[in-house]
Target: Helix-turn-helix transcriptional regulator
Amino acid sequence: MPFIVGTPLPNPVPAEEHERCPVTAVLRRVGDKWTVLVVVLLGQRAHRFNELHRAIEDISQRMLTRTLRGLVEDGLVHREVFPTVPPSVQYSLTPLGRTLLEPLSALASWAVEHGDEIASARRPT
Amino acid sequence: MPFIVGTPLPNPVPAEEHERCPVTAVLRRVGDKWTVLVVVLLGQRAHRFNELHRAIEDISQRMLTRTLRGLVEDGLVHREVFPTVPPSVQYSLTPLGRTLLEPLSALASWAVEHGDEIASARRPT
DNA sequence: CCGTATCCATGCTGATACTG
DNA sequence: CAGTATCAGCATGGATACGG
Model:
């Protein structure tokens, strides 16, 4: 019984229901500083850890680790360790992760199209 | 030159470019605790302040104020004061705010469809 | 009715240093 | 190479009290 979709909301919206709403959960998941960028990079091709680190100029090792770990835990990213010396780890989108790209693109298109309207609303000319 | 859309990303992605990426900006905007729920409620009809307060069981007055103020500043919500006694204030979506509902629904559909996969990935059976 | 002001707990983010 | 450990700053969120 999640929100947004056509279904009418209960009134009042109970606390617990909002906590478990998958829509809010996904947005909060993806609304942090680095997740989307990492997902997009992995959507282009698989990357190794330091490859991502170099590809994102200002991310710290710590935040890259945390971001990837979160995505792996949610089943959106696949982590594969190759037992070479030195070790190498490859990250790639899972099938589930790839399905996320489409609705993300829809929101991206909106952002591209209306981003300047928001900016001009904030700083009126 | 935002991310996600078909355009290839620079390598490395410069810090400044990521800061100003409208896609990330929108997701962080909408990725807080209450914004989406408020937008959805206002998408159904205009609400007064205390109407929203009652409609969302566990939101504090402070957070409702902050959420609404942010949306108004971004031009997504319209605030209209009626000089009655006691005063009444009505909030409604602007045309820009209404256009946000559609891409949000796309992400909502994804969340509804795949939310349980994420949940089961987190707690493997 | 519609907020503000204050204080506080928690979490996100980053810098730096270190390890198998 | 691919992380972990520790510490610190700032932002987010909530509780409570007060004001126009």
Q: What stands out?
A: The CA atoms of residues 12 and 18 of chain A lie 11 Å apart. Chain A has one domain: 31-122. The two ends of chain A are 42 Å apart (CA to CA).
